[in-house]
Description:
Elements: E1 10-19, E2 25-30, E3 38-39, E4 42-44, H1 51-63, E5 68-73, E6 78-81, E7 97-107, E8 124-130, H2 135-138, H3 144-154
Parallel strand pairs: 1-7
Antiparallel strand pairs: 1-4, 2-3, 2-8, 5-7, 6-7
Amino acid sequence: MPDLPPDLPYRRNVGAVLFNRQGHVLIARRADVAQDAWQLPQGGLDEGEEPRQAVLRELREEIGTDRAEIIGEVPEWLRYDLPAELVGTALGGKYRGQMQKWFALRFQGEDADIRLDLDGHPEFNAWRWERLEELPRIVVAFRRPIYERLVEAFAPFTIV
């Protein structure tokens, strides 16, 4: 992979590993790409926003509900670089990748509370509950190391 421009920063971001009562995780399919790209809900931090506030806001914006409680977090910030072909186009063309704070959350609602259609520009067009350990196999390759770390960190939450 060619070197990324050194002046491009990482976008600060939060991510949600949302567990249901059976210990499965919500994964959603991106609406804005042609490929079958599945991922966990995540999004950028607003100026002055705390990560714990941001993760609940992102859930509300992306899946239509924030009926969840934070039950864990990865202590360190995790990073990934975009593939070279996406630098300059993805993330508004302003970032080399993302620096993410990840949280485990327990879903307090019902499946009917999950609404991908509440925003005029939905990020996702489908969702399902999946086993945590399956996530690295499902996601796009450049996100795989992050998801492997999430499996390691949040495996205890799969036991109900």
